[in-house]
Request: fold
Amino acid sequence: MDIASEVRASYAFVARNFNLVKRYLSWEVVFIVFTLVNVLTIGFIGVATGDKRMVLYLVIGALVWRFLSVIFHEVSESIQWERWEGTIEYTFMAPIRRTMMLFGTVIYAVLYGIINTGITLIVALLFFDLTLSGANILTGLLVLIISSFSFIGLGILAAILPLMSTERGSQAAHIIQAIVLLVSGVYYPISVLPEWIRPLSVLSPATYTLRMMRDALLNGRSIGEMWFDILILGIVGFALIPLAIFFFNLAERHAKKLGKLKRSG
Amino acid sequence: MNEVVLECKNLTKAFNTHSNGSGIRNFFVRKKKMFALKNISFSVRKGEIFGIVGPNGSGKSTLVRIIVNLLIPDSGYCMVKGMDVQKNEIEVRRLMNRVSVEASFFKKLSVMENLLYIGRLYNMKSDETRKRVEEIMKKLVFPVTYLEESVENLSRGMQQKVAVARAFMTQPELLLLDEPTTGLDPVSKRHVQEFIVYVRKRFETTILLCSHDMAEVEKICDRVAIIMKGEFVKVDTPERLKILVRGVENTTMEDVFIQLTGREWEQEVN
Reply:
């Protein structure tokens, strides 16, 4: 298969996942309502402080976290989902490179994240009467795109876990996601964290994403002013993806040796 | 039937188990090696239906998983049309497909959504997939009106027919059937068996059929291997295997199994 055919084949994952969304539509509505209520609840904490900037600060945190965690979750859960359905052997038997399989999963995750977060953003803007007049939206979008790569890499790394151990793998992915939420300054500056936790903040790509997003949307900073941070985030993201795919392939070989690529659940 | 499509040489696979037999990992209990396959060698020629019969846990599914490269053997190799299944995995995957005893689908998706997904993975256009699926389903006596139905609403027999369609629609040169008719009612079983024979005749597909069903392998296989505890006990045509049994009138493949292994078939299957 040439590259164009492989890209077409990776569309299989996008189409399949959107079909699953259609079939689980009532659950999607539940997730959207839950996310909206969550973001609004956090926004109201800002309203209670009487500071409009604080509302925006919290809403940016909630939305960016929503977007990045959707990407992480969808990529990391893709293997787990196939295990539950029992389809993993059929997907892994198909003549498509693992890179393109993960590419398809990632494309779906980004599209799903954009739709999900977009709906939440519109409702939040209307609810809190927020304006983004002083914001540098272009910088914000660039930061979000560049950050996505890091979270795609982290998601692929987390997808390795269910490959190795079905149930424990999924549990570990949830723990990783929770720790990233704690240390990355989603709802508060990382300066409030205890000293011993702060080194973890340095390691989390979400810390830089959130700092730059707030700089762009609250302070109107431009790409030129933040180019170095954006570059670093980009390098981390671009390095993380091939590294994650390399480890994924190693894990797949290990699972094939131990006979772990079977249905479970 | 000259070209060798599948060649397996000296395949051995063992799994670690815990000697307490509980399956629970315990660091104080020593691991034991359990052989699933021991030094298996055979080849299957183009258009041949090669049967493998043996009881549960005899190594049939392990062998199929090694051929489709879902499992890596401890030693030995498998070649499909002269290509190593591990070294040329993408090329080889295009040439083969598999039906297993578990239908395994995205249960909420419709039959067609599931098949379109697999079709895309094999680089088939949607129209092409729909056309082939409809042709296959007609042969399998599967009502076309059920193609838009969720898989979870179908009976076990219908799900298995969809699994057969999933494998055949990619037009594989080598088809691995791992107990494709287990659990099917007699009518569905006959539909699937007739379809297997039709496909071999029409496309000269090479087929490896693992089964519990002695009558099934006798009816449709050119050669049969009897497998016990990971080893081939005997490989030959059903007719020649039956000649080996003496002193029994109207010899069946079950008699062959008892003669060659010294065990009762029913006892082994159950």
Summary: Chain B has a mean pLDDT of 89. The domain at 4-269 of chain B is CATH 3.40.50.300 (Rossmann fold). The radius of gyration of chain B is 19 Å. The beta strands of chain B are 4-18, 31-45, 49-53, 75-80, 83-84, 96-99, 174-178, 206-211, 223-228, 231-236.
